[in-house]
């Protein structure tokens, strides 16, 4: 028989992922090595996009460092520092530099310091800012778009100072910080979201707090997304090839039209797919700048990548803010427990119906009801049972109402009904039938039936809605005095003092 060793990794994709996560949690050094390899790999990619000494179209390791410090804090410093040191020696080997090992160590240490300090400080600031904010996603994106550029600017200036100290640049290169800043800036704002995703896989226990920022969305067809992405990539390539082949510098500005295709993706696809698309578009742009020898226009393409990334992140807020707005409307319009109309929204809609009824000279009635002996239900069965009774009652009544009739909760166990195009006699008959049917139903396993007292009155043209409501409320009190479990109707405009309540 084949071995059934439980320590062997499972064969399913999901099982492999669980096994890998478990391995990374048990072997933290392996995670650190993977982070180091990720950083070095992207550093080598940026070197291939170098259009001037020490200046690349973009610098992806900046995004990896920022994301690592954001997720891991101090734990990421050794991997990033070693990566900076190895990159220094690697570059010296590639360019066959005659710099001594001692000098390379000093250059590597200064580079690591200039790279780590600004990004660690910025990531720490962003993390504290997000943790102390209830509206995480909108404020996080805004803070990221402010802190990220400032961090890359600080890092660029510090690296220029480090290069000057080590003699790698002269005083004639005093503006080197500008291309360094743009390259780091692109690396941060373009790659940080994807880097967060990758590092979260490498360190399975990191970044849990990011799950609360609100970036959740069900993905659609992958083929539709690939078509949109391919269209954006082809359009970008055609614009850059035309700018290079036709030798018309103004064509470089046409790259900004890629924003239309990218916004199409942002508004119709998931946040993850939007991040993937902006990373691929930026990567293609950087590659074509190098391949098509568009270094003179590198700043234009870099600026377009920055604008595209910023537009993407702010575009992500649209569905989130729309969802939040919809949720707030639900809170304002619906009673949270029973899902019937809230008091304010009921009166708002009822006032419109009364005005319409008066215009067409149609009758309209308002009713107020509550559950008889509701306090006893709470005291005997508990408040959870009481909440269940309210939900059960409103659901049953709502099923028996017409599409134009309104049901709202005034408070506690007291509810309101508006019956348009219904005379008082019709309203009393209909309500008697509804509440008679409901009283014959049992509430779940409690073997408890719900009986209600109801007051109903017609809203006369000379009435105000509030006055009619108060009259119906007084009639409800009359129904209770007369023995409960009944519908009391009246059209009188004045309620005698014995029936009224303070």
Blueprint of the fold:
Layout: H1 13-26, H2 28-48, E1 50-52, E2 55-56, H3 60-72, H4 77-94, H5 101-131, H6 136-165, H7 177-202, H8 222-245, H9 258-268, H10 271-291, H11 298-333, H12 343-359, E3 364-371, H13 374-381, H14 383-399, E4 406-411, E5 414-420, H15 424-439, E6 452-458, H16 465-481, E7 487-489
Parallel strand pairs: 6-7
Antiparallel strand pairs: 1-2, 3-5, 3-6, 4-5
Radius of gyration over C-alpha positions, nearest whole angstrom: 34 Å
Order of helices and strands: HHEEHHHHHHHHHHEHHEEHEHE
Amino-to-carboxy terminus distance: 85 Å
CATH topology of the largest domain: Arp2/3 complex 21 kDa subunit ARPC3
CATH class of the largest domain: Mainly Alpha
Q: Mind describing the biggest β-sheet?
A: 5 strands, mixed
Number of domains: 3
How large is the count of helical segments? Answer: 16
**Assembly type:** single chain
Shape: elongated
- Overall pLDDT level: 82
């Amino acid at each position: 028989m084949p071995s059934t060793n439980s320590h062997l990794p499972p064969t399913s994709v999901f099982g492999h992922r669980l096994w890998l996560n478990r391995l990374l949690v048990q072997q933290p050094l392996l995670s650190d090595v993977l982070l180091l390899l990720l950083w070095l790999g992207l550093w080598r990619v940026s070197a291939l996009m170098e259009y001037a000494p020490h200046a690349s179209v973009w610098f992806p390791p900046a995004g990896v460092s920022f994301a690592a410090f954001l997720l891991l804090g101090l734990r990421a410093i050794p991997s990033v520092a070693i990566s900076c040191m190895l990159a220094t020696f690697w570059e010296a080997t590639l360019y066959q530099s005659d710099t001594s090992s001692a000098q390379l160590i000093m250059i590597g240490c200064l580079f690591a310091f200039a790279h780590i300090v600004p990004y660690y400080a910025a990531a720490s600031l962003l993390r504290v800012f997000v943790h102390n904010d209830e509206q995480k996603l909108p404020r996080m994106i805004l803070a990221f778009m402010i802190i990220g550029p400032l961090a890359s600017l600080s890092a660029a200036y510090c690296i220029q100072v480090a290069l000057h100290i080590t003699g790698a640049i002269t005083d004639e290169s005093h503006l080197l910080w500008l291309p360094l800043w743009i390259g780091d800036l692109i690396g941060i704002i373009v790659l940080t979201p994807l880097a967060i995703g990758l590092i979260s896989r490498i360190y399975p226990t990191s970044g849990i707090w990011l799950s609360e920022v609100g970036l959740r969305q069900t993905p659609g067809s992958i083929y539709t997304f690939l078509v949109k992405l391919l269209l954006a990539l082809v359009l970008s390539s055609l614009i850059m090839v035309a700018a290079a082949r036709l030798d018309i510098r103004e064509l470089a500005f046409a790259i900004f039209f890629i924003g239309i295709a990218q916004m199409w993706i942002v508004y119709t696809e998931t946040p993850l797919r939007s991040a993937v698309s902006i990373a691929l578009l930026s990567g293609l742009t950087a590659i074509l700048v190098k391949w098509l020898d568009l270094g003179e226009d590198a700043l234009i393409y870099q600026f377009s990548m920055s604008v595209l990334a910023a537009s993407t992140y702010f575009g992500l807020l649209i569905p989130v803010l729309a969802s939040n707005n919809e949720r707030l409307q639900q809170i304002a319009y619906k009673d949270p427990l029973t899902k019937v109309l809230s008091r304010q929204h009921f009166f708002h809609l009822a006032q419109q119906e009364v005005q319409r009824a008066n215009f067409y000279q149609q009758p309209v009635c308002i009713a107020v009801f509550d559950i008889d002996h509701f306090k006893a239900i709470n005291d005997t069965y508990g408040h959870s049972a009481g909440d269940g009774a309210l939900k059960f009652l409103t659901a049953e009544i709502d099923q028996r109402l017409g599409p134009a009739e309104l049901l709202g909760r005034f408070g506690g166990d007291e509810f309101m009904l508006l019956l348009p195009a219904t005379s008082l006699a019709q309203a009393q008959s209909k309500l008697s039938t509804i509440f008679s049917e409901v009283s014959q139903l049992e509430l779940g396993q409690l073997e408890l039936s719900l009986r209600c007292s109801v007051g109903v009155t017609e809203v006369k043209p000379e009435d105000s809605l509030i006055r009619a409501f108060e009259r119906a409320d007084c009639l409800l009190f009359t129904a209770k005095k007369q023995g409960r479990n009944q519908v009391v109707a009246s059209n009188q405009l004045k309620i005698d003092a014995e029936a009224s309540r303070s």
